[in-house]
Amino acid sequence: MNCLLNRMTRAAVAAFCVILGANSLLALDDAPKDKEAEKAAEPVKVQGTFEATRSWELNHGLDQFGELEIKKILPHGTDVKEGQTVVWFDTESIDKKLSAAEIDIRLARITAADEQFAFDQFVAAQKLDREDAERARQSAKQAYDNYLQVDRDRKIKSAEFDIKSSKASLENAAEELKQLQQMYDADDLTEESEEIVLKRAKRSVESAQFRLESTEIRSKRTMEQSIPAEDAQTEATWERAQMAYEKTLRNLDSAKKKRDIERRKAAEALAEREADFEELRQQRKAIVIKAPGGGILLYGELNRGALNAKPSPIKAGAKVSTDQVIATVVQPKKMRVRLTLSESDLAGIKTGDSCVIKPAIDPKAEVKGVVDSIATVPFMGAKFDATVKVVGQLPDAVKPTMTATVELTK
């Protein structure tokens, strides 16, 4: 019996040793896993900036005045109400520009009136010019018609008649000579008188013959040269008259269009100057900047919710351009945290993940947050933009542009 008990005891001890060894091995196997899990649960700490979800950038936006000098501005960090004046500008340069613009308008009105008067005079003169052109055309047309209908035929008939008349004169002179010779043959006159009369008669015949020849030459030239040349000249004269008339009308139309353009240009310039002047007057009334919403007034432009590293140059006496951001009004009631993540930070983080926000001004405070957005494209270098929505209650001391540490759990 004792032997049996000893055997059982030894068996139990052996079994216990086996179990103990197995547990030790299991413990050794689980140790690395616990370390990996502990490492995986370690949060990623990222620095962020509290950013107001609602803000307004302030610039004077008075494009008619360009650069303006700040006369007065509320202090940096002032709590302002909606509609409260925060920036005042020096008006001396503005008033000078208004005065100069008013003088320009007066001159533009005179110029526009002169152009309108000149245009009216020009239109009246053009009417007379058109009438002159029409009369010149009618005169050329009348001359052309007279030549074709009357003068040409008349010249032909005149040439023919001249020949006929010259022939008649020659026949008359020859007939007279013939009769004289017959009379003288009958001894009706003395011999001396007879010779004188006959000599005169012969000369008359010779003259008539010469005139006939000259007339025939002249008439032939008229028919064969002068009339065809005059036909061509008359046609050319009429064509030129037509062309001159058409050119005159075209020139008149072109000149009228140009003068009308000049007139309208002057009128448009006047209208533009008057519109600019009216805009100047309206912008003169808005020569101060009022807060579009309630919040904290911060000088300059914010960069991803943060103030610039260097002090803002904005102050009384500083000059600012039209689109330059003079100040920013931030509403502190509702804020988010803007983060800058590296590529390694992105691994394992996604929108909707919970995180812990620890404001730098109160490190003991831990405020719950949720990853609201993560950019997939870097905004510079290898830096990615991300925002965290504040779920819990922030301490009252936290203001926009302050910093915080955000613990993200991968």
From TrEMBL:
Subcellular location field: Cell envelope
Signal peptide: 1-27
Principal location: other
Any coiled-coil regions, as ranges: 123-218, 245-283
Cellular component terms (Gene Ontology): cell envelope
Keywords: Coiled coil, Signal
Highest taxon above the source species: Bacteria
PANTHER family (alphabetical): EFFLUX SYSTEM COMPONENT YKNX-RELATED
Name of the protein in question: HlyD family secretion protein
UniProt lineage: Bacteria, Pseudomonadati, Planctomycetota, Planctomycetia, Pirellulales
